[in-house]
Amino acid sequence: LAVVENLEREQVITEIPHRRDGGSESFYHMQAIPTTFEDGAKGCTIVLEDITERRRYFQNTMFLARTAIDLVDLQPVEDICQYTLDRLLELVPGAYAYLFSYSEAEHRFAIRAIAGEGFREGLTELIGRDPVGLVLPADRIFGAPYHQTPLSMRGLLDFVLRPEPSSWSFYDLCFGAIPEEACKAILERFDIVRVCCTGLVWRDRLYGIAGIFLPSGREVENPETIESFLRQVSIAIARRETEEQLRLSEARFRGMVDSSPCGVALIDHDDRFAYTNRQFVDISGYEPDSATTSAEWFRQVFPDDDYRQEVIDAWHSDLERSVPGRIRPRTFTIRDRAGTKKTILSRAVTLPDGTEYITCEDITEEARAYRLLVADIADLRRREQELLIKDRAIASTRRAVALLDPDGVVTYANAAYLALWGYQAAEEVQESHFSRFWERPDEIREIVRTVLDGGAWHGELAGLRNNGERFRADLLGTPIVSEGGRVIGIMIAVTPIPKEQAEPEKMRGVLV
Q1: C-beta separation of 226 from 156 below 8 A
Q2: Which residues pair with 275 in a beta bridge?
Q3: Fewer CB within 10 Å, N or C, the chain?
Q4: What is the C-alpha to C-alpha distance for residues 276 and 289, in angstroms, rounded to an integer?
Q5: Are 111 and 131 in contact, with CB atoms under 8 Å apart?
Q6: Of 156, 153, 151, nearest in space to 221 by CA
């Protein structure tokens, strides 16, 4: 009024507020212009422009810019749920707000935060417990009567609760987790008539629900801003969850690598060690840090210049012929900090980002065992060849030869033995007691016992061929003695005696 009464020149006043009976505010831009009327009287012309929407747009834009920065800068330890509700009440003063989190793994909602003057305390009194932490049956929202999906929950939904519900009652919206009488008492105490809620959805995944309870006379004047803000919150929660999953995955991988029985090292693009596990350090005795290059480490574990250059050349040769993802195995001999030589099996692979992933395994004992095994195999082959020569010599001799085990059972018979007794195959005599082939078995058993006691027996005996024919033969039995001096068998050599030289009724033999 002061401006109008003493107006001498044009004046402009911006953002003149006007509060309506319902509590909402309007803003105007006023232009006061000095005016001389037709009768000569002086006055002014007032031009009012409603700038409420323009001002609201500017405020909402600034609000979203501020919250976008806040959500990016919000530290993991800070409560994003409480921050969300505080900002909602900033947009709708005098209302009450809540936020449900959703666990996809457990298929349930839980109340994470409550905001509004005296709201949490009042709810605690009416339902008999602190509402924060209350679990709600989530599976009901996707079935009858709700039939909701993450996509259908993206927008801001408006439900009239009093005096008569427009569709779902407050009891329904609580999924029956709060008694119906308590639901009615909550609406009455806080004079709640409506609720606006929306799902915290990002990329078709539901992270929770946020809602605003509106007392009588309160309105949501900027639903698009609320939706945009809650979309920012959804992205921030999704990012937090992704970061947490990544942190857990990295911790799991780090724990797995740290406890690996093999040494593990990562070498970055600058040829410096980015990571080594405990086993890698134990193998070499040296602990490279982030400033240590592979060349410096090579000088430590390969002190001999010529051998070190040989290793470096092999490394570069393998690298030139390889591609990312292909394993390059090599065996090297290093010298650890204590001066001990170790044989190391190294496996290197280039990762897609160019980092070298290397595992090292101490195979010193395995290499030693391998060398001993190779030597044993060579010795066995030599002995096998010697035994083959001896076996061929026995098999080729014209004298009948048989080998007996300590029980006097035939385990081997050469061709001359089979021919002398008239058998076609060795299987016909093997596994038979040696006494079977002689006229007087008792005498043969006695000879076997004599030889097993360590003596040799030589004499003439009467043998029985396969067809029952009797013949005289010269028999020589000698013990087979192991390296330890134990008798492990008998070697028998038999030579037939011509009939004119034989003495048929008398056994002649001597202990040699």
Answers
A1: yes
A2: 266
A3: N
A4: 8
A5: yes
A6: 156
SS3 126: helix
Residue 372 phi, psi dihedral angles, 5° rounding: -65, -40
Classify burial at 108, counting beta carbons within 10 Å of its beta carbon; exposed 0-12, middle 13-18, buried 19 or more: middle
Q: Is the pTM of this model over 0.70?
A: no
Contact 268, 274 (CB under 8 A): yes
Domains of the chain by residue range = 2-50, 60-246, 265-362, 397-511
Residue 80 near residue 240 (C-beta atoms within 8 A): yes
| pLDDT at residue 190, rounded to an integer | 95
Question: Per the structure block, which two tokens stand in for 76?
Answer: 């993991």
Cα torsion 232, 237, 243, 245: sign: negative
Backbone angles phi, psi at 329, to 5 degrees: -85, 145
User: Which residue from 476, 424, 412, 414 is spatially nearest to 450, judged by alpha carbons?
Assistant: 476
> What is the DSSP pairing of strand 192-202 with strand 42-50?
unpaired
Fold (topology level) of 2-50: Complement Module; domain 1 (2.10.70)
**Before 496, cis peptide (omega within 30)?**
no
Whether the Cβ atoms of residue 261 and residue 246 lie closer than 8 Å to each other: no
pLDDT tens by residue, 250-279: 888 888 888 888 899 999 988 899 889 999
**Positions in the chain whose pLDDT score sits under 70:** 1-8, 20-24, 77, 138-140, 144-146, 386-387, 389-390, 500-512
Report how far residue 340's alpha carbon sits from residue 419's, in angstroms, rounded to the nearest whole number.
65
Burial 265-302 (b: 16+ CB within 10 A, else e): bbbeeeebbebbbebbeebbbbebeeebebeebbebbb
Sign of the dihedral through C-alpha 56, 57, 58, 60: positive
Give the separation between CA 17 and CA 28, rounded to whole angstroms.
Answer: 7
- Token pair belonging to 460: 């003439």
Q: Residues 6 or more apart from 406 whose CB is under 8 A from it?
A: 452, 487, 488, 489
Locate 168 and state its tokens.
Answer: 């779902």
Superfamily classification of domain 265-362? PAS domain (3.30.450.20)
Token code pair at residue 238: 């999704």
In the numeric block, which tokens belong to residue 413?
A: 């018979």
Give the separation between CA 411 and CA 211, rounded to whole angstroms: 95
In angstroms, the CA 165 to CA 347 distance is 70
Q: Where are the beta strands (DSSP E) in 336-421?
A: 341-350, 356-362, 400-404, 410-413
Check residue 204 and report its DSSP letter.
T
Cα torsion for 435, 438, 442, 448, to the nearest 10°? -50
Domain 60-246 fold: Beta-Lactamase (3.30.450)
Between CA 239 and CA 236 the distance in angstroms is 5
Longest dimension (CA), the chain: 182
Number of helices (H) and strands (E) in the chain: give both, helices first: 13, 20
Third-level CATH fold of 397-511? Beta-Lactamase (3.30.450)
- The answer to whether 265-362 and 397-511 have equal CATH topology is yes
